[in-house]
Amino acid sequence: MKEAYLPETLQEALQVRKDQKVLPIAGGTDLMIQHRREGGVAPAFEYPLLFLHKLKELKKIEQHTDQIIIGAGVLLSQLIEEQPVPELLRKTVRQMAAVTTRNVATIGGNICNASPAGDTLPFLYATEAVVLLQSLEGSRHLLIQDFITGPGKTALKEDELLVEIRIPYKEFKVAYYRKVGTRKALALSKISFAGLANFENGYLSDLRMAVGAVAPTVVRSREAEKQLIGLTVEEMKGKMQFVREIYSELIKPIDDARSTAGYRKAVSLDLLEWFVREEVCRGG
Amino acid sequence: MKIEFTLNGKPVDVDLSPNLRLIDVLREHFGLRSLKEGCGEGECGVCTILMDDRAVTSCIIPLGMVQGRKIETLESIRETHNFKIIRKAFEKTGAVQCGFCTPGMVVATEALMRKRNKPTRKEIIEAISGNLCRCTGYHMIIEGIEEAVQKREGI
């Protein structure tokens, strides 16, 4: 068995995926730390590594009429530097890790690592992004919330690779991202929140509120959103308690090294209310 | 596994485990000791090197990932024209206190100076966001980088 594979093309990489059990590695910024041992010793991986950094097929950033397509191998730094990337995603990525990490870490890696605190995820849930999974047998599409099944768990099959992320193209009058962390750089999120909203003729016509790092996967309540859609700014203010109650059921944070469950719950509910009261209502 | 890459301007190849951390290969196999191991998890920046002109932390990069790429460490960066300017500027502003973070700060500064002609103060702060200084000398370091950028412009 080989120690690792360094394919030059997606086709070669998919052949390796079909033939044997490997661990795909994009930027490695999570994997290298999860598997590290003492200095001077190679990290211990369960399977041979499948390096993805040479695959040009995973590097595209394309604007289409109805969607923006981002290759899974696009660096976080490229999301900041290059066009066309939605402004809210750019804003999100700018608050992730530090320049040195963003220079190797990829968007595909952030998705497949499936951390509850993955910072690109609230944006992707809010925009209803679709992931394209490919194998030698063919390809399939999944909504991001169907792809991520739990902490560190995804629907990716052993012969598949995540190839691209498709973000439906839509202008939002209100586009908001807020990360709650201990410091400005190199902080893992205590809470990561993305909110989007639109108005038509004075009535709320669209609303998406996605909260990360407060449950096993990102929390988004269509029920709460639907309750507010169609209302005026004044009417929305009366619904705040209802929104808090619905999200309160769904937000199930944990205590860990970064924060406490109590803090996460209190602050995320306040953040939701603040988003509706300040950002959305001002937008209307 | 044979891995080929460009190291400090010269093509090199090694036959080592592709899972090894780049920091260990650079320090132990190539004897490049400008980079050091601090945190070992990509957060402190003392092992910063350039990979294809981008500043990265070599403690979280597996050797296999540098196949076909351009790697530069401070050993070659200190021969560049920028470095002469950076050194003078760091001396002038007192950007070096205990010196432990300095190699990483210099590499991060070089990456910024290659990318941007006239970086703003905000861009400077962002460029060294992955480099910790425990003497808390950030102000002098930021001033040092501002000085270096201005001096280069004057040439």
Structural class of chain A: alpha+beta
Largest sheet, strands/sense/barrel of chain A: 5 strands, antiparallel
Radius of gyration of chain A: 20 Å
Assembly level: heterodimer
Low-confidence stretches of chain B: none
Could you tell me the strand content of chain A as a percent range? 15-25%
Q: Return the string of H and E elements of chain A.
A: EHEHEEEHHHHHEEHEEEEEEEHHHH
Low-confidence stretches of chain A: none
- In N-to-C order, the SSE pattern of chain B is EEHEEEHHHHH
Question: Percent of residues of chain A in helical segments?
Answer: 25-40%
Number of helices of chain A: 12
Number of strands of chain B: 5
The appropriate CATH architecture of the largest domain in chain B is Orthogonal Bundle
Ends distance of chain A: 61 Å
What structural category do the secondary elements of chain B indicate? alpha+beta
At the fold tier of CATH, the topology name of the largest domain in chain B is DNA polymerase, domain 1
Using the CA coordinates, give the radius of gyration of chain B. Answer: 15 Å
CATH class of the largest domain in chain B: Mainly Alpha
- What is the total number of structural domains of chain B? 2
Would you give an account of this structure?
The complex is a heterodimer of chains A (284) and B (155). Chain A is of the alpha+beta class and 284 residues long. Chain A has helices at residues 10-19, 31-34, 76-81, 87-94, 99-102, 107-113, 121-126, 144-147, 222-228, 233-237, 240-250, 261-283, and strands at residues 4-5, 23-25, 49-51, 61-63, 67-71, 130-135, 138-143, 148-150, 153-154, 161-168, 174-180, 191-200, 203-212, 219-220. Helices cover 33% and strands 25% of the residues of chain A. In chain A, the strands form 4 sheets. A 5-stranded antiparallel β-sheet of chain A has the order 4-5-10-6-7. In chain A, strands 11-12-13-14 form a 4-stranded antiparallel β-sheet, sandwiched between helices. In chain A, strands 1-3-2 form a 3-stranded parallel β-sheet, with helices on one face. In chain A, a hairpin with a 2-residue loop joins strand 6 (130-135) and strand 7 (138-143). In chain A, helix 9 (222-228) runs antiparallel to helix 11 (240-250) and helix 11 runs antiparallel to helix 12 (261-283). The relative contact order of chain A is 0.12. Chain B has a 5-stranded mixed β-sheet with strand order 2-1-5-3-4. In chain B, helix 3 crosses helix 6. Chain B is globular, with a radius of gyration of 15 Å. Chain B is α+β, with helices and mostly antiparallel strands. Chain B is built from 6 helices and 5 strands. Chain B has 2 domains: 2-73, Beta-grasp domain (Ubiquitin-like (UB roll)); 80-153, DNA polymerase, domain 1 (Orthogonal Bundle). Chain B has helices at 22-29, 74-77, 81-93, 102-115, 121-127, 138-153, and strands spanning 2-7, 10-15, 48-51, 54-57, 70-72. In chain B, strand 1 (2-7) and strand 2 (10-15) form a beta hairpin. Chains A and B meet through helix 5 of A and strand 4 of B.
